[in-house]
Write a structure and sequence with these properties.
elongated, 7% helix, mainly beta, single chain, 121 residues, 4-stranded antiparallel sheet
Length: 121
């Protein structure tokens, strides 16, 4: 793994995620409290991007099927809750999940040097 600059602290706006690249992979970074956090910009359900999802309270929601992930750990906290924003009944959740089970998103430790933010990627 290589230490890669992903952003400057001034690039990361409160209550929003910043989409960036690190060694060819798409990453999202955000500030949660006084900590900078980063995860892969790829939902483990179908590999679709998370960057346009709703970000609040340190959690990002997949805009396609409603799964929620902690941005500081990548931990999945809800799995397949909706389809393009429309809440699903339990039977439909199983169909949309297509046999896939709750899976975490790859997370990255963010280090700060001055105003620069880095991850190992």
């Amino acid at each position: 793994m290589t230490k890669v600059k992903i952003a400057s602290t001034t690039d990361v706006i409160s209550n929003k995620v910043l989409k960036t690249k690190a060694n060819g992979q798409s990453v999202i970074v955000a500030k949660v409290g006084d900590k900078y956090c980063a995860i892969a910009n790829k939902c483990p359900h179908f590999g679709l991007p998370l960057a346009k999802g709703k970000f609040e309270n340190g959690t990002i929601t997949c805009p396609f099927h409603g799964s929620k992930f902690e941005i500081c750990t990548g931990k999945n906290v809800e799995w397949v809750e909706s389809f393009v924003g429309i809440p699903l009944p339990d039977v439909a959740k199983k169909m949309i999940a297509m046999g896939k089970t709750s899976t975490d998103v790859k997370s990255f430790a963010v280090t700060q040097e001055g105003s620069d933010l880095f991850i190992d990627a």
